[in-house]
Amino acid sequence: MARHSAFNSREVRQIAGASLLPFRTSCKGPVNTSKISSFEEEGEDIIDEAISYYRANVLFRNYEIHGGADRILLYLTLYISACLAKIEKTPNPKDAEKALQVMAFETFPLPGQAGFPFSSFFDKADKHEELEELRAYMKQLREETGQRVCKVGFTPEGKPNKFWTAFAKRKFMNCAI
């Protein structure tokens, strides 16, 4: 059975059916780190949850959505797969960080646009302003996720961690970014 987000019960703003959950970040963007005091006490945010559930969830071909946080978890699982594929091809953590930074800032489709991998799981955004807000949120989410995946994707010696990169070849729900 696939793992679902513990943050589904949180009352947060949603755009296109996705919860805009706060997370710890050092990256610039719409998520303000001062708003996450309750998450710091818990010790885990949506990115930590996505990384910890990744190896279990990537094995499933079907995923039942239980809330807006599951939609973010679904997207992050696919993004982590793309990050691991980049890590597998880079010789050291420094180069991987650069490659993941570039990947985070690449143009990417949003829910309701052609090319978005999980259009059937997301709603279409009502307004253009909401779509731009979602783009900024997801860009910051991608950047922070790339930084954290880079930390677990390499061993302390600086070599790709085979226990993570082995999952880079798996396609999550037959999708790719």
UniProtKB/TrEMBL annotation:
Ranges that cross the membrane: none
Primary localisation category: cytoplasm
A Gene Ontology biological process term: Arp2/3 complex-mediated actin nucleation
Location(s), subcellular: Cytoplasm, Cytoskeleton
Keyword annotations from UniProtKB, A to Z: Actin-binding, Cytoplasm, Cytoskeleton
The keyword Cytoplasm is annotated on this UniProt entry: yes
GO molecular function: actin binding
One GO CC term on file: Arp2/3 protein complex
Pfam families according to UniProt: P21-Arc
Record flagged with keyword tRNA-binding: no
Superkingdom in the source lineage: Eukaryota
Role: Functions as component of the Arp2/3 complex which is involved in regulation of actin polymerization and together with an activating nucleation-promoting factor (NPF) mediates the formation of branched actin networks.
Complex formation: Component of the Arp2/3 complex.
Assigned protein family: Belongs to the ARPC3 family.
Name under which the protein is recorded: Actin-related protein 2/3 complex subunit 3
